[in-house]
Amino acid sequence: MTPTLLSLLLLSGSGTGDLVAIRVKRAETVAQGPIEHALILVEDGKIIEIGEDLPLERGIPVIERPDWVATPGLVDCHTRVGAERVVASRTFDPQAVPELDIDPAADAWAEVLELGVTTLGFYPEGSGIPGQAIALRPRGDTLAEMRVAQPAYLKINLQANASSKNMLREAFKKADEYEEKVAKEREKWEKEQEKKKPKAKAGAKKEEEPKPDEKKEEEKKEGGGTAVQQEGEKKADEKAADVFVPSPPDERVRPFLDLRAKKLTAMMALRKAADYLHLLDVIEDEKELQWFVFFPLQDDIDFYEVAPKMGEKKLLVVTQPDTTLQPNSIRERNIPAELAHAGAKLAFVPRQDSLSGLEEWRTDVGRLIGQGLPRDAALAGLTLEGARALGLQETLGSLEKDKVANIVFWSDDPFEPAARVQAVMLEGEFVYGEVK
User: Distance (Å, rounded) from C-alpha 98 to C-alpha 133?
Assistant: First the structure.
């Protein structure tokens, strides 16, 4: 007899207290393609199993929705929807995070969830290098409850001019100066450690170890714990003194040290193909830098000229779902499709950073499919690649075992204009829609 899914879960040690199963017409997993007649099993906020027509034992609550299509929650990785106020424009504040701009009580968050958006990348406003984005869930009474990850990425606006390039070069130069300073501090510290080494004379007599009874008497007199405890504390102090501690960097330098250490990723915001070429020139020596590109589709867009180069690098490109006219012509170009066919990864953001833009977002992406964009790239561009931009691709963005259960349930194929959100699950909890 084939074991049921519940039996397998019990054998693996999983409990069944919080288990819920949702059976749908199709699950668009993104990572593994579509699954027809899919059953999604959720427990403690995570997907613990997903597959086609999986058998279940009695006792597990099952939500039967044979007309629904499930997708991962949508991810808008570059937004200021729900901003509490407009802040003064920043030009070089790489250490800044836009915490004061986020209002947890804003009405926008409920509307965002109703549109199927479960994760947001809230970026700092400003030109130059304005700061670091925060990854949010659109639900919570406080910023701490809304925060998913901080920082998500460092936003860098780069243009093909000397001042913009010099700003970035100077930032990495300051990081170089700090690393040189730390190297000198370490060298000095190591020399001092050499001088502190014991200078015991050859043949010197070793102090006699106290007898056990004498040790106990000494401990009583001192009243400072056992000899073992005192010795442990002494060794801990000595160990602390033996560890090199560098002087802290300037707060504006630290983000660039984190970039080099792969603790932080850079979003390079560009406007023209020339900006991309100048970016490669500026970061030529930064071999360990992790970065991706953001560019808005505006007038005179010429990114098709560098699409092959971005494709060769398998670069993640954040852009809008739109077509543009080739400069000085009436030829229409689907630059997102060209990037996808070249090998680049696409993460889409709405054409307008507003609630109305989010309402049109899905259908705008669907329109590109009819104009040559591969469907799998379109779906990933609304989900997994946005999660990748936020550094959350290991936990969000696809329907897979052990990933967070952020799931949107649609009345039809999500790229059909008439499709509507029927329900939204956020971290295993239904937060929108009437589900019994």
Answer: 7
